[in-house]
Amino acid sequence: RYQTVYAKEGESVAAPTAGLHFTNELLEKIREKGVIIAEVFLDVGLGTFRPVQVENLLDHKMHSEKYRVPEETAKIVNEAKEKGNRVIAVGTTSVRTLESAVDESGKLMAAEGNTNIFIYGDYKFKIADAIITNFHLPKSTLIMLISAFGGKEFVFDAYKKAVKEKYRFYSFGDSMFIY
Predict the structure, then answer these.
(1) Is the distance from CB of 42 to CB of 67 less than 8 angstroms?
(2) Alpha-carbon distance 98 to 24, whole Å?
(3) pLDDT, tens only, 164-173
(4) Structure pTM?
């Protein structure tokens, strides 16, 4: 039962939690507004929940996970980018998948394989223009990814407000839209 409404396959140890906010009815309303929904696949591993425990981030060994970007998704995303439309990734899982399958010219490639991409600091994102994500655990690679995307100060200010306003955190928590 702990799964997104659009899950189809895979060997994930957990659902991509940002996707838990979507119902079939909400997805239909989004489509009615002209939004094109494209799928990527990443088997979430236990390493996703492992906190970073090294002083120097360069010493952190990122876990490896299987991913796949279908040909149709690469086509949809590349056309959107060419037209100047936004690509909104639902969850850090999707961001990691997209960034693992982008070529040197910034084009998304249909691809599958394993990724151990660790996104933090001043990483230059190539595909996602916005991210829908949950509030993540401190010292996690997930909070580092969204801090790289939205800026550490912005993200930490959002977390302070979330604590003050009693937002729900982690897997069944509230979500945020970062652009």
Answers:
(1) yes
(2) 23
(3) 998 888 777 7
(4) 0.88
